[in-house]
């Protein structure tokens, strides 16, 4: 069959548009709209004592200036706590515009609307806000010590104490042959999508309706939030995510203040209003992730098998908790990775600091969990003088243990039960792919060039495709075109291609006939959003089910026309035919025409469906009871729980022992996301993830000073890796289908980033023989580490006990 | 990230430019690679940008036996690929290859980079190391300013009032001399964490007679350090370049920042000095 496309490396159909400047981003929409700009707090913690706008009102082109005092009704209330949790005992959120106190540099205080962005910024410059500075809390340790409080009514700075345990860990540790304890840190990075946030709002006064384009990962929920906050009826609000120039998590948070304030101004002013976030705003007023302190105690036997694991963590959630405690929950529950841990306890305090909020960034707590678990595996191996791969192997969940219940509760409130996997298979492939067993020769060769070579590995399991649901709509038009829509949004992942492949495959039509729309509430009103590697699993399956519904209806109608049994029909290349009987066929587009009985022949195709076009059955109504006109179907996929993808990475690094420069020379990935819709797209996702993993391990950090000022809030000083810093990635796939969904899929979006920090830390440690306990690490820090006489030395070769 | 209002003028003669620059808050625009980001971030708000790109005669590289004269509108990329200039003063192409990325080299000007006086800029130190000078157009006529008198502090030069730096002069590499240039940066094309340019000159007996080095991102203004004493009178084969590197470490006074501690910079000064001197000495034997 020519239309069998599932699993094929089909070229991404969106790329030509996106890479030739024909994408349509929020900044491409609504030329001539008024522009919004914001006065943001220059202090990390301060009380607002006055806002003087008088000097700004005579700037030519100023249209409106808003402060907290201008907010009414629900807009004057705090922003929602999107994901409440019983352990989130002290949730705090800000206001759309600051009320009395600012809690981080960058918090919006005043919104200006003017004829264009230049004027709006001129106006911002002339607004004088006076502040009384308050004590500042920066960093997870300062928050924990709580010498000062971020929120006056949360004196210990603790938003939540997340706690899960699977048994008596203290007894299990006491009974363990060996134990070791250590503390480690991981710092902040951020999503940094190429396109920042952006909002464009148009109010139709006569229709009393609002249309908002926003660069979001959750258009349906933004719609509901706008309706609630601006007191509009839901059907009068449309929200569209157009082309979105990257998300990586930051755009799943909503409603951002600007997503409410821009529509509010559009309604009040009766004119379209537009706001495009600039890069500095993105640094100081969107979201960051990753900072944690981890204290780990592990018990193990002589063979290196873990007998008990106790993790005490502190997670910096920044100034507010609009996205609840998803990140620390994900860390806590995904930390155990591919290993059978007999007794596990995790306690993570989520603490406030006077910094930008912390919400999911690709990986969403998993890189930290992986860092904790995988560095533990390395330490056990070093302590016992065992090969690091062998220690991992001894602890892996075996293929015959699935479904494997960790007795933990995941971020979706459902049990952490691994649906399927083959972790030994991953490890075998990785060892072969990177040449793990022939590193000694490479070390010698590198040494002959004056370089220190090291190798590290890390494994992970990623819960993907959480519910509650997604839906899909598939409709065949009389032209033969197949329209597909789903409510979740796209940020460049290749959904247009992957979803079209699924529909072409399920329905038996050419992929060229399939058009996909995502994230447009005008087309599909029910959706959750794009996060947690869920688009293929959730919308992919929903769309497949919808396509199957269309197929069933098409076959039923065609069977009538062709006077054949449904079972004897097939669809290929858009043609419904009787199997083995050439000529006994009807085009799917004709079936679509016939599916909609017509009175009026507005065109030639329609003529075939009118009342005098052919013989009818006078004993039945034109549309059967329980049937509907049109060849279309809507269906939903709602999983019982998440499906768990997995993988293993290895990095080979070379260190220059004169300059301490760190070069990742090889990077190997073995990846299992169940059945693969499009291997080219999956590999692209892995490549991008690895790039961000390298960034998080070696380059990116948010350099806050003690006053809460972000010292590197630009791309000059916040170092994302260029292509020149990202190693070539070699990939091997393993396909262990998920038994939970019709297509057997598992998510692939975040996997590439998860083990980066753990595996590069391991490789550097292997190269230089010094303990790496804080990541990321830069050459200047590595230099400090190797010349510190107190730095802990570690054996650099397998089989050499410490 | 939008500039505050500013005026714009694009004079077609130096006289016209100098008249415009006599107004308060007027600033020269050439390649714009440093100035325009400063405007966009509102870290600079000049009243008027005087765009010199339409002034004829400023876009040439003139090579003579004395050295290389680089006009104010010569882009980095032109110097990078100028074979004749590279033959007379090899440091020019070697340093320019380290200036940022191709897109920036295509627009940015070498003289603009010098006039910007950023101690992280490659060409400021190259001007110093070669003992160069700049020509400045002023209402009173052109003036020649030696590099040592030109750089006053970070982003600050001795030139005040209406003026346009029209040319930089890089003296030719003397006979029996070699050069080398190398940087360590966090990412390819970034500002250097530390960079070193060196010149080694041999006497007629092929013994080291002069060793000079200038560093990038070390110190507030370009400095040239004479390292001759560590290796003077040695043949290239005998010379202990690590001794020169040790001397260099004692002479510099780097600062720390987000990307490198002062100690790390000092380490790199030594490493890069040793590496570049060895290469420069090899070359000196061939010229």
Automatic annotation (TrEMBL), chain A:
Keywords: Molybdenum, Oxidoreductase
GO MF annotation: an example: iron ion binding
InterPro entries reported for this sequence: Ald_Oxase/Xan_DH_a/b, Ald_Oxase/Xan_DH_a/b_sf, Ald_Oxase/xanthine_DH-like, AldOxase/xan_DH_MoCoBD1, AldOxase/xan_DH_MoCoBD2, AldOxase/xan_DH_Mopterin-bd_sf
Residue ranges of domain Aldehyde oxidase/xanthine dehydrogenase a/b hammerhead in the record: 20-135
Gene3D superfamilies: Aldehyde oxidase/xanthine dehydrogenase, a/b hammerhead, Aldehyde oxidase/xanthine dehydrogenase, molybdopterin binding domain
NCBIfam families linked to this entry: CODH_aero_grp5 (NF040766)
Name this protein carries in UniProt: Xanthine dehydrogenase, molybdenum binding subunit apoprotein
TrEMBL record, chain B:
UniProt cross-references to SUPFAM superfamilies, sorted A to Z: CO dehydrogenase flavoprotein C-terminal domain-like, FAD-binding/transporter-associated domain-like
Keyword Oxidoreductase: yes
Gene3D superfamilies with a match to the protein in the record: 3.30.465.10, CO dehydrogenase flavoprotein, C-terminal domain, Uridine Diphospho-n-acetylenolpyruvylglucosamine Reductase, domain 2
SMART domains in alphabetical order: CO_deh_flav_C (SM01092)
Pfam families: CO_deh_flav_C, FAD_binding_5
PROSITE patterns per record: FAD_PCMH
Keywords in alphabetical order: FAD, Flavoprotein, Oxidoreductase
FAD-binding PCMH-type domain: residues covered: 1-175
InterPro entries from the UniProt entry: CO_DH_flav_C, CO_DH_flav_C_dom_sf, Diverse_Substr_Oxidored, FAD-bd_PCMH, FAD-bd_PCMH-like_sf, FAD-bd_PCMH_sub1, FAD-bd_PCMH_sub2, Mopterin_DH_FAD-bd
Single GO molecular function: FAD binding
Protein name in UniProt: Carbon-monoxide dehydrogenase medium subunit
Native source species: Klenkia taihuensis
């Amino acid at each position: 069959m020519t239309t069998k496309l599932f699993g094929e490396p089909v070229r991404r159909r969106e790329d030509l548009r996106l890479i030739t400047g024909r994408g349509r981003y929020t900044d491409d929409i609504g030329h001539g709209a008024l522009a919004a700009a914001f006065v943001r707090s220059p202090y990390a913690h301060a009380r607002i004592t006055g806002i003087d706008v008088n000097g700004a009102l005579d700037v030519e082109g100023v249209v409106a200036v808003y402060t907290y005092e201008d907010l009414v009704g629900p807009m004057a209330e705090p922003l929602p706590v999107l994901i409440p949790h019983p352990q989130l005992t002290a949730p705090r959120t800000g206001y759309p515009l600051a009320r009395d106190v600012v809690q981080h540099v960058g918090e919006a205080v005043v919104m200006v609307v003017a004829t264009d962005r230049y004027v709006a910024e001129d106006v911002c410059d002339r607004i004088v806000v006076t502040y009384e500075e308050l004590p500042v809390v920066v960093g997870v340790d300062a928050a924990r010590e709580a010498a000062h409080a971020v929120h006056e009514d949360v004196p210990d700075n603790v938003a939540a104490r997340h706690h899960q345990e699977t048994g008596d860990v203290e007894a299990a540790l006491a009974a363990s042959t060996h134990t070791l304890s250590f503390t480690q840190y991981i710092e902040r990075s951020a999503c940094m999508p190429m396109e920042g946030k952006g909002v464009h709002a148009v109010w139709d006064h006569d229709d009393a309706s609002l249309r908002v384009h926003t660069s979001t990962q959750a258009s349906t929920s933004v719609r509901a939030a706008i309706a609630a906050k601006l007191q509009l009826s839901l059907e009068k609000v449309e929200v569209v995510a157009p082309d979105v120039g990257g998300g990586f998590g930051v755009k799943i948070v909503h409603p951002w203040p600007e997503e409410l304030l821009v529509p509010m101004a559009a309604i009040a002013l009766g004119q379209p209003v537009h706001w495009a976030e600039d890069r500095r705003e993105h640094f100081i007023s969107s979201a960051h992730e990753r900072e944690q302190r981890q204290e780990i105690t592990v018990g193990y036997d002589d063979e290196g098998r873990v007998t008990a694991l106790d993790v005490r963590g502190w997670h910096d959630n920044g100034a507010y908790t609009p996205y609840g405690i998803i990140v620390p929950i994900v860390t806590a529950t995904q930390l155990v990775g591919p290993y059978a841990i007999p007794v596990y306890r995790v306690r993570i305090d989520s603490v406030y600091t006077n910094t930008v909020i912390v919400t999911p960034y690709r990986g969403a707590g998993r890189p930290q969990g992986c860092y904790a678990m995988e560095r533990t595996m390395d330490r056990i191996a070093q302590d016992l003088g065992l090969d690091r791969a062998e220690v991992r192997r001894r602890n892996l969940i075996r293929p015959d243990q699935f479904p494997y219940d960790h007795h933990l509760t995941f971020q979706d409130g459902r049990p952490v039960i691994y649906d399927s996997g083959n972790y030994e298979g991953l490890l075998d492939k990785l060892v072969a792919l990177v040449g793990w067993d022939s590193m000694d020769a490479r070390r010698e060769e590198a040494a002959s060039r004056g370089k220190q070579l090291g190798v590290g590995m890390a494994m992970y399991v990623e819960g993907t495709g959480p519910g509650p649901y997604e839906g899909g709509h598939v409709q065949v038009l009389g032209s033969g075109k197949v329209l597909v829509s789903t409510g979740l949004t796209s940020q460049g992942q290749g959904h247009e291609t992957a979803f079209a492949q699924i529909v072409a495959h399920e329905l038996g039509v050419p992929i060229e006939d399939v058009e996909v729309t995502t994230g447009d509430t005008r087309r599909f009103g029910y959706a959750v959003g794009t996060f947690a590697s869920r688009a293929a699993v959730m919308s992919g399956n929903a769309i497949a089910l919808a396509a199957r519904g269309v197929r069933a209806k098409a076959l039923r109608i065609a069977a009538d026309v062709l006077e054949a049994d449904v079972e004897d029909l097939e669809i290929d290349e858009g043609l419904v035919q009787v199997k083995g009987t050439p000529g006994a066929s009807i085009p799917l587009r004709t079936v679509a025409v016939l599916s909609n009985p017509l009175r009026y022949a507005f065109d030639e195709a329609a003529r075939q469906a009118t009342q005098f076009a052919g013989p009818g059955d006078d004993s039945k109504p034109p549309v059967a009871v329980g049937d509907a006109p049109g060849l279309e179907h809507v269906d939903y996929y709602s999983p019982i729980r998440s499906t768990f993808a997995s993988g293993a990475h290895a990095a080979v690094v070379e260190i220059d022992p004169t300059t301490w420069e760190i070069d990742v020379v090889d990077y190997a990935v073995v990846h299992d996301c169940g059945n693969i819709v499009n291997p080219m797209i999956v590999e692209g996702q892995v490549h991008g993830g690895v790039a961000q993993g390298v960034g998080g391990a070696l380059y990116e950090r948010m350099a806050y000073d003690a006053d809460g000022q972000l010292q590197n809030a630009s791309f000059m000083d916040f170092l994302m890796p260029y292509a020149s810093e990202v190693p070539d990635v070699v990939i091997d796939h393993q396909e262990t289908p998920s038994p939970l969904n019709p297509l057997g899929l598992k998510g692939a979006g975040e996997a590439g980033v998860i083990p980066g920090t753990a595996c590069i830390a391991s490789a550097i440690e292997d190269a230089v023989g010094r303990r790496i306990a804080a990541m990321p690490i830069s050459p200047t820090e590595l230099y400090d580490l190797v010349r510190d006489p107190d730095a802990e030395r570690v054996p650099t070769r397998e089989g050499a006990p410490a | 990230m939008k500039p505050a209002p500013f005026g714009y003028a694009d004079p077609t003669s130096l006289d016209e430019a100098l008249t415009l620059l006599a107004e308060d808050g007027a600033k020269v625009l050439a390649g714009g690679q440093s100035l325009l980001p400063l405007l966009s971030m509102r870290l600079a708000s000049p009243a008027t940008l005087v765009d010199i790109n339409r002034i004829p005669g400023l876009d040439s590289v003139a090579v003579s036996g004395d050295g290389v004269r680089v006009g104010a509108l010569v882009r980095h990329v032109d110097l990078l690929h100028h074979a004749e200039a590279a033959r007379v003063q090899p440091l020019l192409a070697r340093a320019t290859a380290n200036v940022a990325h191709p897109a920036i080299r295509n627009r940015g000007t070498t003289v603009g980079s010098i006039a910007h006086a950023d101690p992280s800029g490659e060409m400021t130190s190259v001007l110093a190391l070669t003992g160069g000078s700049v020509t400045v157009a002023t209402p009173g006529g052109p003036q020649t300013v030696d590099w040592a008198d030109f750089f006053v502090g970070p982003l600050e030069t001795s030139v005040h009032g209406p003026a346009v730096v029209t040319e930089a002069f890089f003296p030719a590499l003397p006979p029996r001399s070699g050069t080398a240039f190398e940087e360590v940066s966090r990412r390819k094309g970034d500002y250097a964490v530390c960079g070193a340019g060196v010149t080694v000159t041999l006497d007629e007996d092929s013994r080291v007679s002069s060793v000079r080095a200038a560093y990038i991102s070390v110190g507030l203004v370009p400095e040239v350090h004479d390292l001759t004493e560590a290796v003077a009178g040695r043949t290239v084969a005998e010379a202990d370049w690590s001794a020169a590197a040790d001397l260099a470490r004692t002479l510099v006074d780097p600062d720390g920042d987000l990307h490198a501690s002062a100690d790390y910079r000092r380490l790199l000064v030594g490493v890069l000095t040793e590496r570049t001197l060895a290469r420069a000495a090899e070359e000196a034997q061939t010229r």
